[in-house]
TrEMBL record:
Keywords: Acetylation, Aminoacyl-tRNA synthetase, ATP-binding, Ligase, Mitochondrion, Nucleotide-binding, Protein biosynthesis, Transit peptide. This is Phenylalanine--tRNA ligase, mitochondrial. It catalyses: tRNA(Phe) + L-phenylalanine + ATP = L-phenylalanyl-tRNA(Phe) + AMP + diphosphate + H(+). Residues 396-494 form the FDX-ACB domain.
Length: 494
């Protein structure tokens, strides 16, 4: 008999909630890992609660007593989480939810005939065909199914992510505790693999980020990290022969003293090595784009910023009349290599998004589709190979139901001041609505000039991929979201 309760000031302390009225218990939220160990109602029908991750069922069960009964409950803060047979101590940073943890070990990218596996294999085939060792074996090792729980050092510090970078915020990442988190990118494994002696590798894995809700965003998605380190031996070979299709560059010096960092290079790199690495990297990725989308694909390079590469670029392709980012890349920060024990090599890295690529390749319009276990989805790829031309056909187009939700933010108006963040609301909607929710859009954001209070209005589009939702079903879910927002986020409904 369990239910999730909020974080308490002393996580390991037992709390006796005696003579607590049923409606009063609804003040608690499900933002932390806490459980009701016993719940009975002496003056009304007994209150037995089943295991849940939100307060939806609690609300329904307790309200059946009309709020008049007395609830006796012994509440204990659940101080540990068990993930992949490892135990982690919870603390004030813990914000993972059962809904998110349920995605662990699905390993879509290793499931034969799954579109994400097909895209992965298409990229692997390209890299293996075009980059061979002197023994004619594939140069790039493929590393996958690594533990998604990583240290903050691996996810941030080893990649030079600044201490104040937005990606470190609890509103943007999923934390197990202050020391461990669900990886936000496959780059979290980069430094350790380099320390192990790998110079050329591809890392494939699922990554976790708190994000908005729409047809192209999901809190769990996949990345495919590619890293290529270049030493003088390889540089001499490539520049003298143009190996791998790269135009020859002779007499290149890698490093310089007293150099200056600017938008074009790092301080320790010579302009020649930067120009070579950029040409080598873009040649590789342009070839990959042609292998994926065909020789006539329309593409462009966009300058961008990543903490772990400089200079950095994004590759965008034209899809349905719009530019869509399919990967980020750049020349690796030399400090990352130095801290991994590498002093005589430079490197470049790239990181494609298999979902984005599969959506373009197969015409899949909704990112939720990749997690579907509906036979109508997987059946379309049952005979597919990485080289097959498959156009996804939606099993059926279900009609959407749209509801709006407006509320005043807590505090004086500013999000940080009131402790409110939009990603908290998106997580709440995901936990309650699950795959019934297709999109959540902020449609109005204003501050009342008289009171100084800030208001948000969201439009929630309900549409399940496999069944038609009735208005009655949507209304129940929407009311649970309204109630949850008020109780768990401290907002005032309008």
């Amino acid at each position: 008999m369990f239910a999730v309760l909020p974080r308490l000031s002393q996580p390991c302390l037992f709390h006796e909630l005696n003579r607590l009225r049923a409606r009063e218990i609804l003040k608690y939220s499900s933002s932390g890992p806490y459980s009701i160990k016993h719940c009975d109602n002496k003056s009304s029908p007994y209150c037995f609660l089943s295991t849940i991750s939100t307060f939806n069922n609690i609300n329904k069960t307790l309200l059946n007593s009309n709020g008049s009964g007395i609830v006796r409950a012994s509440v204990r803060a659940q101080s540990e989480l068990s993930i992949n047979k490892k135990t982690y101590v919870c603390d004030d940073f813990t914000n993972v939810t059962p809904k998110i943890l349920s995605h662990l070990n699905r390993n879509l990218y290793v499931q034969q005939r799954h579109p994400l596996c097909l895209v992965k294999q298409k990229i692997v085939n390209y890299m293996h065909d075009n980059y061979r060792s002197k023994y004619h074996t594939p140069r790039f090792a493929v590393v996958e199914q690594l533990d998604p729980v990583v240290t903050l050092k691996d996810n941030f510090d080893s990649l030079l992510v600044p201490a104040d970078h937005v990606s470190r915020a609890r509103s943007d990442s999923y934390y197990i505790n202050r020391d461990y988190m669900l990886r936000a990118h496959t780059s979290a494994h980069q430094s350790n693999l380099i320390k192990m002696g790998l110079d050329h590798f591809l890392v494939v894995g699922d990554v976790y980020r708190r994000d908005e809700i729409d047809r192209s965003h999901y809190p769990v998605f996949h990345q495919m990290e590619g890293v290529n380190l270049i030493d003088n031996v390889m540089l001499d070979k490539v520049t003298s022969t143009g190996g791998g299709g790269t135009p020859g560059h002779g007499g290149i010096k890698m490093f310089e003293s007293n150099g200056e960092r600017n938008k074009e290079k790092q301080a320790v790199h010579t302009r020649d090595i930067v120009q070579f690495c950029e040409a080598d990297l873009k040649h590789c990725l342009f070839g990959m784009a042609k292998a994926l989308f065909g020789a006539n694909i329309e593409y462009r390079w966009v300058d961008c910023y990543f903490p772990f590469t400089h200079p950095s670029w994004e590759l965008e392709v034209m899809f349905n009349g719009e530019w869509m980012e399919v990967l980020g890349c750049g020349i690796m920060e030399q400090q990352i290599l130095h801290e991994a024990g590498i002093t005589d090599k430079v490197g470049w890295a790239f990181r494609p998004r298999p979902e984005r690529l599969a959506m373009v390749l197969y015409g899949i319009p909704d990112i939720r589709t990749f997690w579907s276990q509906d036979s109508g989805f997987l059946h379309q790829f049952k005979n597919a190979t990485p080289d097959s031309v498959v156009r996804f056909r939606e099993v059926s187009k279900k009609p959407p139901c749209t509801n709006d939700l407006s509320f005043w933010l807590p505090g004086g108006g500013e999000e940080e001041d009131g402790g409110y963040n939009s990603n908290d609301f998106y997580d709440l909607v995901r936990d309650i609505g699950g795959h019934n929710v297709e999109q959540v859009n902020l449609i109005d954001d204003f501050v009342n000039k008289k009171t100084g209070r800030r208001s948000h209005s969201y439009r929630i589009v309900y549409r399940h991929m496999d069944k038609v939702l009735t208005n009655e079903e949507v209304n129940v879910i929407h009311e649970q979201i309204r109630t949850g927002a008020a109780e768990k986020l401290g907002v005032t409904l309008r």
